[in-house]
Design brief:
The structure holds 2 protein chains of 2 kinds.
Chain A lengths: L1 H10 L4 H8 L3 H20 L10 H16 L3 H4 L1 H9 L13 H12 L2 H14 L2 H26 L2 E2 L5 E2 L2 H11 L5 H36 L4 H16 L4 H28 L1 H17 L6 H17 L5 H6 L7 H8 L1 H21 L13 E2 L2 E2 L8 H11 L3 H32 L3 H20 L2 H43 L8
Antiparallel strand pairs in A: 1-2, 3-4
Helix pairs in contact in A: 2-3, 3-22, 4-9, 4-22, 6-17, 7-17, 7-18, 7-20, 8-15, 8-18, 8-19, 9-10, 9-14, 9-15, 9-17, 9-18, 9-22, 10-11, 10-22, 11-12, 11-20, 11-21, 11-22, 12-20, 12-21, 13-14, 13-18, 13-20, 14-15, 18-19, 19-20, 20-21
Chain B lengths: L2 E7 L3 H17 L2 E10 L8 H5 L1 H26 L3 E9 L1 H12 L3 E5 L6 H6 L2 H8 L4 E4 L1
Parallel strand pairs in B: 1-2, 1-4, 2-3, 4-5
Helix pairs in contact in B: 4-6
The chains are: A mainly alpha, B alpha/beta.
Chain lengths: 513, 145
């Protein structure tokens, strides 16, 4: 079984070859056509609507899960918030553990995998289709998603593998198999297996192709149009140098520059908002009105809601399970502490950064509105924009309304975000890959080479099929992960109860630093 | 009551100068224990990749082992051979903060460090570790020139 999947995954990038020969057109078009055909059925299944409605079942799946976890853990995102800040500050970190991975570092690493194009391009896609109203649902999804993240990251630490050489491996594949076994439930290994397969696809989709695609869009927007495969090959070579060649210095520089770019992005958005202070009230009005009326967007309120929830999930990955892989490396005796820290992730990623992007796009006036009706003018299913821009180009144009030079900064930010997200997801994908095929140098290199091939495909394919496949692969991870979380959440509640009791009694104490 | 002197070592010639001065003090005091501390500069707020995080525990152990083998153990062996009572410690963190907190927790009556000659823009802007220690220490500090 392992062998056939291995073969299937290995062959996937090369199924484009016959189409390449037939098309006779540009490499880009050929790759795009072959890609859309190869991934179409998978995408259609994941986004199939609930019978009799236009609501994709997968969006409902995520919303229900986040709501269930919110209620089950008694609004942990509110009652645990203060303590999670204390944990990130290191108030409860034992000085004897200095030198180990801190809560802050685990959070920052996980954030560098999520903060990126989802916040820049993804929000533009949501607002471009669902209108400003999508922002409201995005914020709501972010707030609810904090509980999903809490659940999965607690389990990630609790059931991680600690090897004799001191390295750790964690994530849904480990808690699904070990947790189910501990509870005497069947099917844990099957879920772990399915999660690993989808995680590999997610790493190749959202964690790779979407990043390469949007980075190319940004670069070509500045230097002029040129074939996507060129960007793809440049990116692939650099990523290859880091993940296969072990040139850590490139990754180290990126890891230090990315947070700086993130802060610069938020600060610039804040300055633009302050400069347009008089429009903020109006923008929030649009967000609320759009959330409950749709303001003429395709699909109305449901259209805005679907876009908001979809893009929030794609951006903060709550319920997807990827963060559990990143958070599991922290040094702590209390898994619940990492769960509490991780709930800050959707807050920073979605509620703060995504909202900033959405507000800047809304106040930029680039979304064309019919003054007579007050509704948006549609171009097919998307809102017509000034300059006919979409995705990352829409965000870039919106920021340029405030600062004409910002597209250049944004281009650098997009490239760095894309790169850092690729590095993060190459690790998540690798962990899933080694879970399936075993640890070993050769198996690792095979995955890393496939990962690099997909960078070229992602940069060459057009936005539509890439975004659809990225979403589908990531949401497929959420299907398996959340199924497991429902069965394992009593374990988390028990841990939470015990921890809170000991915290209250003073058994868990603050350290003087 | 045994007096305790904390010596800051950094693996360089500066550490040797600190040890030499601490020995003089210990000889004068008589009943004195020397504690040699090597600090591995580390911040809980630095940024790392997921792979680095996964390997962090292993690397921490390797860093401690290397510091003990190259700096602490040779210093302790030499001091013991000369008849001094001595212990060694290796810790991760900020140099000045850890020298101070260790001196306080160990009940040391003095910290001895040497000027390490840190140069470059960072030390000009943020000051050197020894300058920081001199400004913030709760325990008397001797900085050997």
């Amino acid at each position: 079984m392992k062998k056939s999947i291995f073969k299937g995954l290995t062959l996937l990038p090369f199924t484009a070859a016959p189409a390449l020969a037939q098309e006779g057109g540009s490499i880009d078009q050929a790759v795009n056509a072959a890609f859309a055909t190869a991934t179409g059925p998978f995408v259609s299944f994941i986004f199939a609507p609930i019978p009799g409605t236009s609501f994709p079942w997968i969006v409902m799946w995520l919303v229900i899960a986040a709501s269930v976890f919110t209620l089950y853990f008694g609004f942990i995102q509110i009652r645990g918030f203060r303590h999670s800040i204390q944990l990130v500050k290191g108030d409860y970190s034992d000085p004897e553990d200095a030198g180990e991975v801190s809560h802050f570092q685990a959070l920052a690493t996980a954030l560098s995998g999520t903060v990126g194009l989802g916040n820049i391009a993804g929000v533009a896609v949501a607002v471009g289709i669902g209108g400003p109203g999508a922002t409201f649902w995005m914020i709501l999804a972010g707030l609810l998603g904090m509980a999903s993240k809490f659940t999965e990251c607690t389990l990630g630490v609790k059931y991680r593998n600690e090897y004799p050489d001191g390295t750790v491996s964690g994530g849904p594949m480990y808690y699904l198999s070990k947790g189910f076994r501990e509870r005497g439930l069947p099917g844990g290994k099957v879920l772990a297996f399915l999660f690993s397969v989808f995680c590999i696809l997610g790493a190749l989709g959202g964690g790779n192709m979407f990043q390469a695609n949007q980075a190319h869009a940004q670069i070509s927007g500045i230097v002029g149009d040129f074939p996507g495969w060129i960007t793809g090959i440049v990116f692939a070579v650099i990523v290859f140098a880091v993940i296969v060649g072990g040139i850590k210095s490139i990754a180290n520089v990126t890891e230090k520059v990315v947070p700086f770019m993130g802060i610069l992005y938020v600060l610039t958005a804040l300055v633009i908002l302050i400069m347009n202070f008089d429009k903020i009230g109006w923008a929030f009005g649009q967000i609320f009105e759009g959330a409950f009326t749709g303001l003429g967007v395709a699909g109305g309120i449901v259209g805005a809601l679907i876009q908001g929830f979809k893009r929030a999930a794609f951006s903060n990955e709550a319920g997807v399970g990827s963060a559990a892989i990143a958070h599991s490396a922290v040094r702590t005796k209390e898994p619940i502490t990492e769960g509490l820290v991780s709930l800050l992730e959707p807050l920073i990623d979605t509620v703060i950064i995504c909202t900033m992007t959405a507000l800047v796009i809304t106040i930029s006036g680039l979304l064309i509105m019919d003054p007579a009706t007050g509704n948006f003018v549609l171009d097919g299913s998307t809102i017509k924009t000034v300059g006919d821009v979409s995705g990352v180009s829409l965000t870039s144009a919106a920021f340029a309304e405030g600062f004409s030079w910002f597209p250049y900064i944004l281009a650098i930010a997009v490239i760095l975000f894309a790169f850092s997200t690729m590095i993060s997801w190459s690790y998540y994908g690798l962990k899933a890959w080694t879970y399936l095929f075993g640890e070993g140098k050769t198996t690792e290199v095979i995955f890393k080479v496939i990962f690099c091939v997909f960078i070229v495909i992602g940069a060459a394919a057009s936005l539509g099929p890439v975004i659809d496949f990225s979403d589908a692969a990531i949401f497929a991870m959420a299907v398996v992960n959340i199924t497991g979380l429902y069965f394992l959440m009593p374990i988390v509640r028990k841990e939470l109860g015990s921890y809170m009791e000991r915290l209250k009694s003073g058994e868990i104490r603050r350290f003087k630093h | 009551m045994t007096a305790k002197i904390l010596i800051g070592l950094d693996g360089s010639e500066a550490g040797d100068r600190a040890v030499a001065f601490a020995k003089q003090l210990a000889a004068l005091i008589g009943d004195c224990e020397l504690i040699a501390l090597f600090v591995i500069e580390w911040s809980p707020y630095s940024f790392q990749t997921a792979e680095e995080n996964a390997e962090r525990h292993k690397r921490r152990e390797a860093e401690i082992a290397a510091a003990e083998e190259r700096v602490i153990n040779p210093a302790i062996d030499a001091l013991k051979a000369e008849g001094f009572a001595v212990r060694g410690l290796v810790k991760h963190g900020h140099v000045a903060d850890l020298l101070n907190s260790t001196a306080v927790s160990e009940g040391a009556s003095q910290i001895v460090v040497a000027r390490s000659g840190e140069r470059g823009l960072a030390s000009r802007v943020f000051g050197t570790s020894t300058a920081h220690l001199a400004m913030t220490s709760e325990v008397p500090v001797t900085i050997v020139g």
